[in-house]
Amino acid sequence: MVKNKTYYRRNLPHYQPPGYTFFVTYRLDGSLPVETIKKLKAEREKELRKISGYDNKKIRYEKYKEYQKIYFGKFDKLLDGSNYGPHWLKNEEVANTVKELIHSFDKKYYELICYCIMPNHVHQVFTPTNIYIDRLKESLTEANASVYIVTKILQDLKSKTALKANKILNRTGTFWQHESYDHVVRDDKELKRIVEYVLNNPVKAGLCKKWEDWKWCYCNFDLLV
């Protein structure tokens, strides 16, 4: 029987239970120096070892959630202020292609809540649709009878945007960094906080004074009620 897989780990942990909304971030390949990534990873491993020392499971979980926010905050701040690596999403034709493909997945792959396209990364919030999940399960064989729903959505989205963006830029090779960040949104309060964070990303980065002035931001506020 085909089932959703919910957890795996590469450089980052990925927890993708069905029925939830997700906050995801994906960045351009080479958008941060390798040494910076290594330093962040080393700091993270050190902190996780410290957290694992708590005997109380509830405290350990709360400490982990708290640190994940800190870790992502550092990571995102580095991306916002980075002059390193490519900034292909500054190209309006490329950014518009990514925007159109994000919207083309709406109602088919997911319910699109919001996104923000930055010069070297994208923030997005969505809820996978049951229709897509069922269709994906039907396409799997028994030899490959499990799937990470959010990872699959991002793979499809990134591969299609990369193909079109590379054509526009007259280049070949990797466009997006392979691994993306994904976070389970636990409740409405957290959802509103994350949406506010996403929309205000260009404001905090000094790219505009109000999020409404940034043409690569979008939010379906009806889904926040």
Mean pLDDT: 88
- In whole angstroms, the N-to-C terminal distance is 36 Å
Helix share of residues?
A: 40-55%
Question: What CATH first level of the largest domain would be assigned?
Answer: Alpha Beta
CATH architecture of the largest domain: 2-Layer Sandwich
Number of domains: 2
Please supply descriptive tags for the structure shown above.
Alpha-Beta Plaits, 225 residues, alpha+beta, 5-stranded antiparallel beta sheet, globular, two-stranded parallel ribbon
Structural description of this entry:
With 225 residues, the protein is an alpha+beta fold. It is 45% helix and 18% strand. It has helices at residues 34-51, 57-80, 92-104, 130-139, 149-169, 188-199, 201-204; strands spanning 3-4, 7-9, 13-15, 21-27, 110-117, 121-128, 146-147, 181-185, 217-219. α1 runs antiparallel to α2 (57-80) and α3 (92-104) packs antiparallel against α5 (149-169).
SSE blueprint and pairings:
Blueprint: E1 3-4, E2 7-9, E3 13-15, E4 21-27, H1 34-51, H2 57-80, H3 92-104, E5 110-117, E6 121-128, H4 130-139, E7 146-147, H5 149-169, E8 181-185, H6 188-199, H7 201-204, E9 217-219
Parallel strand pairs: 1-7
Antiparallel strand pairs: 2-3, 4-6, 4-8, 5-6, 5-9
Helix pairs in contact: 1-2, 3-5
